[in-house]
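New here. Your pick:
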Amino acid sequence: MNFTVIDNPSTAPTPLFTAPRAVETGDAIALLTDRQFHVAGRNMRGEAPLIQTTSGGAFLVGDDAVANVASIRAANPLLPLIVEPRSLRKHLATDAQPFQLTTATLSDDLDQQRVYSDLAITPTGQIRAGDSDTLKAALREANKLDRTDTMFAIPAYAGWLSDDQYVKQLITVINRSVNPVLFAFIDGHNPVGSMKRARAYRRIFQETTVPVVAHRADLVGFDALAHGAIASAIGSYPSTRRLNPFDHRGGPVNDVEEMSPHMLLTDMLRIVRSLHMRREWFASAAPIQCFCAICRGADVDRLHSDESERRIGHNHNVVNLDALYSSYVGLGASARRTLWADQVQGALDTYPQLESHLGRSLPVDPILEKVWAKAS
């Protein structure tokens, strides 16, 4: 049991494989299969040692990723490390220039990536919603490759999820890819934060027939795993759980405590800011405790905005994500759907448990209740 007061038996961790598993460097399908990845940004050095080497891995993102990967690999030799190209964050794709190349050719660019990354990723730029010409141009170039070490990246604006015809176009393009697809959405906030988009997101994984990774996801990555994704890559804090628009400029933070970490509550399948729990949930009730390897019985709402405390929160999320994923290791598609359905139902059952402790009602996450809990 990870938390006091709330209990979801279906999210209890399962012992992970203890036998060493080699890093299948250069073999995309073998490396991605049966792993849950973490998107590691500014806390990558602190997070890497916590990730399960037999069933996990890391996508290193940000301006420091290439500079840090060698030392992180030396300290964690059994951990798969994949470096995300800068283009996914900083380049707007066009049909004339779908990729942001740092060398003369796409193949040369991918070779250069493989010097430091266990897999290569096409340096695709961000694709505006409905820009099918650019999407198809990127596909054509990627399909000319004859490699087993490469993922075709599709960083798509979240508006693609809001239009049924756009969703059909995405599915069609993905199904024509000869390479596994790394799929991420772009928005200044949660790109899959509405029920319409969450349903469309699930549909993509249900209807695609090539291996697809749900990249830069939140817990919707588990819904993707249950409905066909070969793997998911989930971030420990908000900006690693999405791609910001290439021209995004962050606004001022009016309340310094709004920088307090978002904490994963696995039993609830919910990520909640420490500040929100402190102010809204436990203002008049004793806080619940977390018994993960990081918190060790401490109050789950204790962490503030100090960078050292934020890193503790990120580390909490890493170990709890791996614990949540542990029961998926080795399961087939049907068994994953069943497990996810059980975990979702258990999460719904935690709301009355917490409400009894708080002495008042608590709104249920509508995506949990009306999307994830619905079979399709």
Q: What stands out?
A: The CA atoms of residues 117 and 144 lie 21 Å apart. The mean pLDDT is 95. The chain has 13 helices and twelve strands. The longest helix spans residues 333-358.
